Prior knowledge:
Elements: E1 2-14, E2 18-25, E3 30-35, E4 39-44, H1 47-57, E5 63-71, E6 80-87, H2 90-103, E7 108-110, H3 116-124, E8 131-136, E9 143-148, E10 164-169, E11 180-184, E12 190-194, H4 198-212, E13 216-219, H5 222-237, E14 252-254, E15 257-261, E16 264-268, E17 271-273, E18 278-281, H6 288-303, H7 307-312, H8 315-329, H9 347-353, E19 359-360, E20 365-375, H10 378-386, H11 407-428, H12 435-458, H13 468-491, E21 495-500, E22 503-507, H14 518-528, E23 532-545, E24 553-562, E25 567-570, H15 581-595, H16 603-622, E26 633-636, H17 649-661, E27 670-675, E28 680-682, H18 696-711, H19 718-725, H20 735-738
Parallel strand pairs: 10-13, 13-18
Antiparallel strand pairs: 1-2, 1-8, 2-3, 4-6, 4-7, 5-6, 8-9, 10-11, 11-12, 14-17, 15-16, 19-21, 20-22, 20-23, 21-22, 23-24, 24-25, 26-27, 27-28
Helix pairs in contact: 3-8, 6-8, 6-12, 8-11, 8-12, 10-11, 10-13, 11-12, 12-13, 13-14, 15-16, 15-18, 16-18, 18-19
Amino acid sequence: MLETKGWLLDLYEDETDQVRLWFILEDGRRICLKQDFPLTFYVSGNRELLHACCLMLKNRAGVLSLKRVFKTDVFKSDPVCVLQIDMEDPVRQREVFLQIKRTFPRLICYNADLAIHIHHAARYGTFPMAFCALSYELETLRIADISVLNSRWDITPVHPVFRLMEIAPDCNPAKGTPQNLLISDGHRRSKVVRLNDPAALLETLNRLIDEIDPDIVLSQWGDSWLFPFLAEKETEIGIRLRMNRDSERDVLWKKAFTYFSYGQVIYREREAHLFGRCHIDTRTAVMWRDYGLPGTLESARVTTMPIERAARVSPGSGISAMQMITALQKEVLVPEQKQQVETFKNGTELIQRDRGGMVYQPRVGLHCNVAQIDFVSMYPAVIINGNISPEVPLPDGLTPASDEPGIVPLTLKPLYQKRVEIKHRLKSCKDKESAIAKNFASRASALKWLLVVCFGFLGYKNARFGRIEAHEAVTFGGREALLRAKEVCEEQGFELLHMFVDALWIYKPGCTTVADYDFLLEEISRRTRMMISIDGIYRWIAFLPSRTNDNYPVPNRYFGVFQDGSLKIRGIESRRRDLPPWVVNVQLKMLDCLAKASSKQHFPERLQAAFAVFKAELKKLNDGEVPLEELVLTNRISRELDDYKTPTAAVRAAFQLLDQTGRKMGAGQKVSFIYTKEDVFAWDQPAKITIDHVDKVKYRELLARAAGTIFYPFGIKQQHLSDFVQGRLQLSFDFTLVI
Length: 739
């Protein structure tokens, strides 16, 4: 029996070995160990059906035992009598579960369809990068004992030194034909591999894989082009590519699919998954732009999901996995499908409960020396403090109705505490650009998104532990907390300019430093039992109205500058992803000009500078000097092409792409295009256009809208800017009069 220590990199079920686990040992070796892993699941329902199910499984291979037991179902007031089915291994457990579903569709299954990493985490406390003490047999490599020595909740975890391999084609495959692959080992040592000789390509790749022996493969267009291309060449040439560390496995392909989330139709490309290594396509990884590899590793750590999966799925899947682990550890049944529906409510109850977050319409216009104070992860804090969970009595406001912690708050509490501590460490970092600070920021962002979705997941119809009444209890508690904060502000003489869900914008003459708000924050925290902090003090901030009606303020549409000169913008063009980069960048340049204004006295000069930027960029457009790439818009298609009766510009571009390339875009996919004098031009087609084809009238209007947003608080009408860019009006502003 050998003993060693190492970090868990990957685990998955196997037909012959039950579970395979890959470790990075302390001495740097990578090793695959095997583990016996019997599983138990449960079935409930009609007694006669359960008896028939017992008879069917009595002598089935892989079934270790059958017996009746009582278990807790969060949606039932009393323990439920269920059939306990003990299975020899995970593969046979899944086969038996599917057989029961086919044969007895009216029976309810519990703990039956959970991923192997969830069962393993609940039983042994494992997670990606868990540092483990291991005992295993030398001949069989089978684990005799495993003990986790660190925690998912470590603030400064020690990771192994990962070996990285970065691989990408030399151009966007949708726009051209790649000629080379660019391969790096993560230490800026790169190699160019030509694609014109497939046999040499595969041999070179195998040699580089053997040399680097990567733990994580970071690709660009890996799912959509690179891995399919390499698989095709493998078949043609007959050379096996050693992309998997587990030589007995092929690349696992997961099908493309479309789903609906938070008001958007999302399309997910098919995915290439590896065994013993992790593959992440950085262009399709869900939150890669927000937090990169450090945040992805943090998400995998706390959710226990494999690194590949943590990079590709939404934060909601992570919260779901965490809740299921908590349930298994508490011996609570995890239903395959939730059976519950919303309870009946009368009109008064609907008015009181069925509402969202509190919104206090902002005072449109420009304001100086305004402080923004935010509750720290308000809704998770309401869930934790109020003990809001589907299986316990719900609170009336912020006071819990039960002392027994529910599954949801038990799951969220360590996550919330970890994010608060990481944010505290981040604030203490003097150099925000240091590697430590950037690591903290990425990890805090990953935890933030997990906490953000936990509230919505409570009301999600398919959530295993979702309950609409619990969802409503959270918003009710949030409204109560915000109202209490408002009362404290008004008692202390602050003027309320805006409230939005978990934040307040307040003003009081003479309050210009963070210290001026210390007592206010302490009193709000005391009355709400929740943490609240100051997001910053604005030199100035502008709240904006609706585009269609100046009399209607928009709660989440504003821009402002903090005392340190940093910008905060919400709901305006530069925050949107469906506008061309040129328009976004012009607006940001104009905002940078205004950001240099430290007081109202400096606005005339800074407005003049912003207007100069506006005119210079307009001239560049008119002179044909804006690169075509900067004029590309990317919009999402929300349904199948044939379902559109009045096709949008993006849909017309998609039809054009279909005609030119045969590539059909589906619901949830994004289409890039340029407005032309004729109509639109699909950017991903092989054909080319020049700046002369561009519809400059359309882009001038987009520019005028973006500039109109910036100049609105200073009394300048967007219509005047539109007339100016189209040559219908000459403008000469005296900004001293505007201010």
